[in-house]
Amino acid sequence: MVLVVAGHAGAGASTVALAVAEGLAEARRVQLIDYAEPVRSGLTAASTIELGTDGGGWRHGRRGRLDVVRLARRPGEGESLPPPETDDTGRLLVVDAGWSLTTALLDAPGPLIRDANVVVVTRVTVPAVRQTEHVLAALDGEPVIAAVGPARWPRTVQASCGPRLRELRSRGRVVRVPVDRRLETDGLAGDRLPKPVAAAGRSLAALLVPAADPQPRHRRRAAQSRTGWQASR
Q1: What is the pTM of this model?
Q2: Which domain holds residue 193?
């Protein structure tokens, strides 16, 4: 599972989660789960097809090869809905935690955050990297940083980085996500992500999950033979 959390409010985590999910979906089956309350969701308009709600409190949609699942209602006090059930055990989950779930997970880390490949999203500003350092201090392992902003960090921002963020930068665990003014203004919709943002999602995906093994040659030949046989019928 891939867990996308914001290093601070307004970081742009939903855009990064969608870009990562689409990057991963190029080689495997992926389900993007949005844990933000419906009124706070950044993925409300991201699906191209709406498929309705299930009995577990989730709203389902499709976006190309990607399954998009959002909360259909606001959870009750202290309630945490489990991920939607699926028969597809090979599907990779990408979770857009939302700010409320992010703060809850950091206050009481559980298996969800310990077992996941974590992406922390931050803006390239002095207040943002300072707040992100507090999030990183609560995480084990080696998260990946999605840095939304310029490729060259201002000196004041570099000087404000804490030890965890400096270490991750030195280890190549930081990926730049360029700012797109249209997305900043209009938000996410059903159209394609801007090419630079999509490319950043693929770069993050490559760091998070190893590339899918290519299909063995004998299986490809068998599949082609079956296809040819069916076409000739």
Answers
A1: 0.86
A2: 2-77+86-208
pLDDT in tens, 172-203: 999 999 999 999 999 999 999 999 999 999 99
CATH code of the domain in which 147 resides: 3.40.50.300
Three-state SS annotation for the chain: CEEEEECCCCCCHHHHHHHHHHHHHCCCCEEEEECCCHHHCCCCCCCCEEEEECCCCEEEEEECCEEEEEECCCCCCCCCCCCCCCCCCCCEEEEECHHHHHHHHHHCCCHHHHCCEEEEEEECCHHHHHHHHHHHHCCCCCCEEEEECCCCCCHHHHHHCCHHHHHHHHCCCEEEECCCHHHHHHCCCCCCCCHHHHHHHHHHHHHHCCCCCCCCHHHHHHHHHHHHHHHHC
pLDDT, tens only, 47-68: 999 999 988 889 999 999 999 9
Decide if 143 is inside a domain: yes
